[in-house]
Amino acid sequence: MAGQKYPDMWVDPEEDPRSQDAVLGDERSTLLDYLRSYRLTLELKCSGLTPEQLATRSVPPSTLSLLGLVRHLAQVEQSWFRRVMAGEDVPYLYRTADDRDADFTGAVADEAAVQEAWARWREEVANAEAFVERAESLELMSLDPKNPIQLREVLVHMIEEYARHCGHADLLRECIDGRTGQ
Fold first, then answer.
1. Membrane-spanning regions, if any (predicted)?
2. Structural domains for the chain
């Protein structure tokens, strides 16, 4: 970006909205801080790109793209917090009977598709945050009888999911415009 001291990075270190301070709180605060930071990292790695760049796929035959990651993570948020933890019977955001990977295969270079993906992702993140806020403890058990799991485990899994996919996003973004993560 023009005017940046470090144009090869997502954002100049002094303007990075992610906190580098150690969280000296309880378990819930620590987990939520890490998850918040990874969610913000995903947004940073996708910022300033065109729909074409966001839909750029990694290497054939992979369908992996930044836009696909946004769609995938919206579906992951929905699956864990709505379907598993809350026991809601909601249709998948992108998965279909014919295409289990529609979150990636349907990630096309279209402004409306990009806006829709970000809107769904933000909606699912807000739902997840509200769900965790309402939970009395991290021992809260899921309401999906096929998937007995505690909220604590879901939060750890979400951190792992975002960390892995933010690593993918690093490589995708570097291929698109040479910018590297921090």
1. none
2. 30-177 (1.20.120.450)
